[in-house]
Design a protein that fits this description.
Elements: H1 7-17, H2 43-59, H3 83-90, E1 92-93, E2 98-99, H4 101-106
Antiparallel strand pairs: 1-2
């Protein structure tokens, strides 16, 4: 999808369901400045954002997602692990649009 915010969860879910293990260090090793005040929106961002979000929501099986996303395509979800397992690993509840912050901090 052509999005800036949200690609991390999409990639993590796709890697996990394709069988890759995910690891995270116990402390921050690098940082990224997410301040977008200085950024000027490009016209094509707005033209493609809706389609990109619908595709992302479809991949993650969220309400409002496209029903036409091919989940088993090379760029879709894998068959090695389920989205349910990914959500449990990450402490996420996509259907409720919630995260378990306590769970994440204990991991």
């Amino acid at each position: 999808p052509q999005i800036f915010y949200g690609e991390e969860i999409s990639m993590a879910a796709r890697y996990w369901t394709h069988g890759f293990d995910l690891f995270s260090p116990d402390r921050a090793l690098v940082a990224h400045d997410y301040d977008t005040f200085h950024m000027r929106p490009w016209k094509w961002d707005y033209l493609h954002l809706g389609n990109s979000l619908r595709r992302l929501y479809g991949l993650l099986q969220l309400p409002g997602g496209s029903k036409f996303v091919a989940p088993q395509s090379p760029y879709g979800m894998g068959r090695h692990r389920s989205m349910r397992d990914f959500q449990a690993l990450a402490g996420l509840h996509f259907g409720k649009r919630q995260s378990d912050a306590e769970y994440q901090c204990r991991r």
